[in-house]
Write a structure and sequence with these properties.
Blueprint: H1 3-28, E1 41-45, E2 48-51, H2 52-61, H3 64-83, H4 90-101, H5 107-116, H6 121-125, H7 129-138, H8 146-155, H9 157-160, E3 165-173, H10 176-187, H11 192-199, E4 215-216, H12 222-229, E5 240-242, E6 245-255, H13 262-292
Antiparallel strand pairs: 1-2, 3-4, 3-6, 5-6
Helix pairs in contact: 1-3, 3-7, 8-13
């Protein structure tokens, strides 16, 4: 499945969460003429009051109409799925969750994005039903031919390739002079991992001996890529000046670029094309539902 489509679905889920927050607020604090309750104090900043009316206005201003529309669409899907007797299993939700995870380079990036939006893994999981319902509604209508798969493979081969990747360890110093002293020690036989634990200023990697994740060209600053990719296995770089300080790198692993065969990518391509067709079908269906359903939006 293409990362761009997965990312689109990710932002859709974020919008749903924001919509739910907005609607919960509206249920308990409906708009209308201001009452004493509307001006109830929620917080004070240096003696200045923030009331419930200000919270409501801020929620609406923060894409309130858009997010409420998305929640309405979510309800349209739920009702249609219920009429068709569509049920969502735990396994299907887990599969959808895995698709979202694959949109991110690492598990840490996925979890940090959840945290950034104040969401939990369990909370996101609870919002997968709509996506699964849409898939089960429209997947029976989708047919992907071998010719379409071949065409996609031919046209997108460059993006399907896995580029050359390397793995390295590094030691980060605040000044060039400090880095040069460390480099001299390493060249004299000092253990790289032990030195990283003792002297690196990178708190994220020093405890594991400065070990970094596997990366490809373009994942880091150009000066870093140039230095690391030029190394022989086990080789030590000079002092590399980057935006965050002065690095010394040791190359620990290199993986050659991989060009996959059509057979190796066939099912992945079929899944990607299926998902794109479901997206197109569901978009057309949603437009029709919005024009025929009895919808009352009191926020607009």
């Amino acid at each position: 499945m293409s990362n761009s489509f997965q990312q689109n679905r990710w932002w859709m889920y974020i919008s749903i969460i924001l919509a739910i927050v907005l609607v919960i607020y509206i249920v308990f604090f409906p708009p209308g003429n201001k009452t004493e309750s509307d001006t109830m104090t929620l917080a004070k900043v240096n003696g200045v009051t923030i009331g419930k009316d200000k919270l409501y206005d801020a929620l609406v201003a923060a894409n309130g109409l858009e997010t409420l529309d998305k929640l309405i669409n979510n309800e349209l899907v739920r009702q249609a799925a219920e009429k068709q007797g569509i049920e969502v299993s735990e396994e299907e939700i887990d599969k959808e969750m895995e698709s979202i995870r694959q949109s991110f380079a690492t598990e840490e990036e996925f979890e940090s994005t959840l945290a950034m939006y104040g969401m939990t893994l369990e909370g996101l999981k609870n919002d997968m039903s709509t996506q699964v319902q849409l898939r089960k509604m429209f997947e029976p209508q989708v047919k992907v031919s071998d010719e379409e798969i071949q065409k996609y493979y031919n046209e997108n081969l460059e993006t399907l390739k896995t580029p050359e990747q390397v793995k390295a360890s590094h030691i980060l110093s605040a000044t060039k002079s400090e880095a040069e002293v460390i480099l001299t020690e390493l060249k004299a036989g000092a253990d790289f991992a032990a030195t990283a634990k003792e002297k690196s200023t990178d708190t994220a990697t020093k405890d594991n001996g400065g070990e970094l994740e596997m990366f490809a060209k373009g994942d880091n600053e150009e000066v870093i890529d140039n230095a690391v990719f030029a190394l022989e296995l086990g080789g030590l770089s000079g002092v590399v000046e980057a935006s965050d300080g002065f690095h010394i790198y040791r190359l620990t692993e290199r993986q050659a670029a991989i060009t996959p065969t059509l057979e190796e990518k066939k099912e992945e391509i079929r899944e990607s094309l299926t998902t794109e067709q479901i997206s197109a079908l569901s978009t057309d269906w949603m437009t029709e539902q919005q024009s025929t359903a009895d919808i009352e939006n009191f926020l607009s």
